[in-house]
């Protein structure tokens, strides 16, 4: 499947993704993961809420929503919560390293 430039730009709009912050109720609706389970995963340190004040509704950014979806998928595939969390952290490290390499290459060619 090929994408035109505007579609690729929309998919890679990191500025937009960095501003995406969603309340726990919406995250639950979007992901199908109960709020109680999301709070438990947060207590376990697997995901993190965005802090924007004391006593406010829990809010999550794009990366944490992605983690929630990945955890759910791995649990559905039979992984334990701890194994799913480790697998996700390993994946994110690989992705981060790949993007750092790309950034280094881009920086050296400019």
From TrEMBL:
It holds the Pfam family MerR_1. Keywords: DNA-binding. Coiled coil: none annotated. CDD domains: HTH_GlnR-like. GO terms for molecular function: DNA binding; DNA-binding transcription factor activity. The keyword DNA-binding applies. The keyword Disulfide bond does not apply. Residues 24-90 form the HTH merR-type domain. PANTHER family: BLL5018 PROTEIN, REDOX-CYCLING DRUG-SENSING TRANSCRIPTIONAL ACTIVATOR SOXR. This is MerR family transcriptional regulator. It comes from Cohnella faecalis.
């Amino acid at each position: 499947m090929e994408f035109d430039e505007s579609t690729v730009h929309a998919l890679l709009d990191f500025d937009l993704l960095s501003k995406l912050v969603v309340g726990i109720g919406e995250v639950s609706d979007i992901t199908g993961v109960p709020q109680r389970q999301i709070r438990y995963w947060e207590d376990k340190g697997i995901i993190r809420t965005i802090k924007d004040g004391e006593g406010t509704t829990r809010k999550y950014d794009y990366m944490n929503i992605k983690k929630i979806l990945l955890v759910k998928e791995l649990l559905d595939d039979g992984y334990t919560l701890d194994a799913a969390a480790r697998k996700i952290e390993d994946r994110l490290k690989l992705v981060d390293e790949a993007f750092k390499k790309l950034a280094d290459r881009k920086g050296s060619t400019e």
